[in-house]
Amino acid sequence: MADRPRIGFIGLGIMGAPMAVNLIKAGFPVVGHNRSRSAVDRLVAAGGQAGESVADVTRRSDVVVTMLPDSPDVEAVALGPDGILASAAPDLLYIDMSTVRPQTSVAVARAAADKGIRVLDAPVSGGEQGAVEGTLSIMCGGEEADFEAALPVLRAVGGTLVHVGPAGAGQTVKAANQLVVAGTIELVAEAIVLMEASGVDAAAGLRVLGGGLAGSRVIDRKGAAMLARSFAPGFRVDLHHKDLGICLDVARDAGAVIPLGAAVAQLMSALRAEGDGSLDHGALLKVVERLSGRRRD
Amino acid sequence: MADRPRIGFIGLGIMGAPMAVNLIKAGFPVVGHNRSRSAVDRLVAAGGQAGESVADVTRRSDVVVTMLPDSPDVEAVALGPDGILASAAPDLLYIDMSTVRPQTSVAVARAAADKGIRVLDAPVSGGEQGAVEGTLSIMCGGEEADFEAALPVLRAVGGTLVHVGPAGAGQTVKAANQLVVAGTIELVAEAIVLMEASGVDAAAGLRVLGGGLAGSRVIDRKGAAMLARSFAPGFRVDLHHKDLGICLDVARDAGAVIPLGAAVAQLMSALRAEGDGSLDHGALLKVVERLSGRRRD
Questions:
Q1: ipTM of model
Q2: Nearest Cα to B139, choosing from A98, B29, B150?
Q3: What is the interface size between A and B, counted as CB pairs within 8 Å?
Q4: CB-based contacts of A110: which residues, under 8 Å, 6+ apart?
Q5: Are A51 and A58 in contact (CB under 8 A)?
Q6: Considering just the CA atoms, what is the radius of gyration of chain B in Å?
Q7: For a 10 Å CB count at each end of chain B, is N or C smaller?
């Protein structure tokens, strides 16, 4: 792989777009592709090139990165007839940074191995802010040697980079991550409603919680917005709902019993059922308010 | 109040003892009392004085601090016939740093007001480590002026000091704190079991979770011990069980519905029912392991 390998980036959404820009800023030549053309135009304006299709991007790249919404998207883009594996030279390194089922990552890795293509599942945590700042946490499954080969690319978009196991392991850790994030948001929401319903200054209370063993990045990053009922995404409820479905599947497959994970998945479903799927996941506060008779919308 | 008011400290347990020592180190004269005499002897060895009884300590002090296990203890020590209020001069400042029911704090504050005694409820978070290091988070209910008068004392034992509202408000915030702490420990336990049951390196996984939006002081301070199944307290399950009982009462009184809080209270009860009440609350991991068929003890 060249010193500055050519990067193909497929999926220029809320997360993908700033990640691709950070790769450009780090000096990589980046060719991008996205279903809607406007995102590609913005990448070109930021110094990237336009790819005409998945196959076009793959042929023009040493490393292909995908950042797509869900498992079927990755299966289509990676395994489809004009997909990455069908279009790739044997020395391609393919890094899927989407959050998908571990089984999808394993299936892609197996199909790629048959063609001599190296694959990593490398989902991220840290949200839009982490993507913009290039400080994402990246949990990586696949061969150790491939992880090391990918490090120069991953460093341009991430702060914490950890190889956690074989193909699919990155997705398993991401599932655990999404369980902890959703659960922590829900706990903070319950704490806020508990304090407000008791007539206590919840902003002051949350400040002191943040300074002790209850402290979390959720309080630091989302506490103020939750107190202000500001639920513009950020990370959408629809996506977290999808991720918790993966998490419950992973738990069932592994025989792990996760009572709080199961409960918060139901609360996220309730939020979505009320039509709030496009809000930030901090809107779990609305579910607690509704349950507590403190909101009528 | 003098520049260095005389402090009476009642309740020299795991938390109280190091807090009293930090007051001595900060230059306050401290007279201590405890049900078992050995704790008083240790305070004397650290430069404090021995109080013979609650009444004796109260009469020799400008500020009395209590750090006791539960609501009935505070009611007996504060309101009993030879208790603090019965023995106090009218200008006493009484700071109860125990974790008790908000109603107990309100009852003590009302009784004290009748005698012109100032009272604060000032429960803490941060555990034994925070008590030893003098970095506790302190959530304070009571009159703002009394909070300001108490600040020199509170600064000697705490890092984050916040006035959160009137009498009882400190306890309400502490209840919210204990909800978030127990819930976060349980979420981390579920994440660990999910990763281990899936054959993923949970230590590596937890490292990456700690670097992203899932990051928390629970992961930072308790993650390694939980991975190692090291459950020496720390903060005992029995006490956290007591605190979650207070939390559920506060929620019911206020009409707040806290689904994850209720669920983790049940899991803490299950841990205690198995005879693990004297372990550190990180032992919630054992409940998840038992539920998942991964432990037989």
A1: 0.94
A2: B150
A3: 290
A4: A167
A5: no
A6: 20
A7: C
Closest by CA position to B261, among listed A51, A14, A197: A197
Separation of alpha carbons B166 and B159, rounded Å? 21
Contact B127 A213 (CB under 8 A): yes
Q: Determine whether A25 is an active site residue.
A: no
Tell me which residues of chain B, numbers 176 to 235, contact chain A at a CB-CB cutoff of 8 Å: 176-177, 179-181, 183-184, 186-188, 190-195, 197-201, 204-205, 207-218, 221
Distance of alpha carbon A191 from alpha carbon A205, whole angstroms:
9
Lowest-confidence region among B7-11, B111-115, B124-128: B124-128
Residue of A250, A252, A177 lying closest to B211 (CA atoms): A177
Spatial distance between the Cα atoms of A140 and A146, rounded to a whole number of angstroms: 10
pTM for this prediction = 0.93
For chain A, the helix, strand and coil percentages under 3-state DSSP, each to the nearest 5: 55, 15, 30
Closest-CA distance, A104 to chain B, in angstroms, reads: 15
B174, B222, B242, B286: the active-site residue: B174
Which residues in chain B touch residue A184, judged by CB atoms under 8 angstroms apart? Answer: 183-184, 187, 214, 216
The torsion angles phi and psi of B158, rounded to 5 degrees, stand at -125, 160
DSSP A280: B
CA angle B208, B181, B133 (to 5 degrees): 90
Q: Which residue of B has its CA nearest to A169?
A: B200
Searching chain A, which residue's CA lies closest to the CA of residue B130? A212
B120 touches chain A (CB under 8 A): no
Are A194 and B216 inside 8 Å of each other by CB? Answer: no
Closest A-chain CA to B127: A213
Digit-by-digit pLDDT tens for chain A (297 residues) are: 456 899 999 999 999 999 999 999 999 999 999 999 999 999 999 999 999 999 999 999 999 999 999 999 999 999 999 999 999 999 999 999 999 999 999 999 999 999 999 999 999 998 888 999 999 999 999 999 999 999 999 999 999 999 999 999 999 999 999 999 999 999 999 999 999 999 999 999 999 999 889 999 999 999 999 999 999 988 899 999 999 999 999 999 999 999 999 999 999 999 999 999 999 999 999 999 999 999 856
Q: What is the DSSP letter of B236?
A: B
Q: Which tokens hold the place of B204?
A: 């590596």
CB contact under 8 A, B263 and A259: yes
CB contact at 8 A, A73 and A239: no
Q: Are strands A93-96 and A63-66 parallel, antiparallel or unpaired?
A: parallel
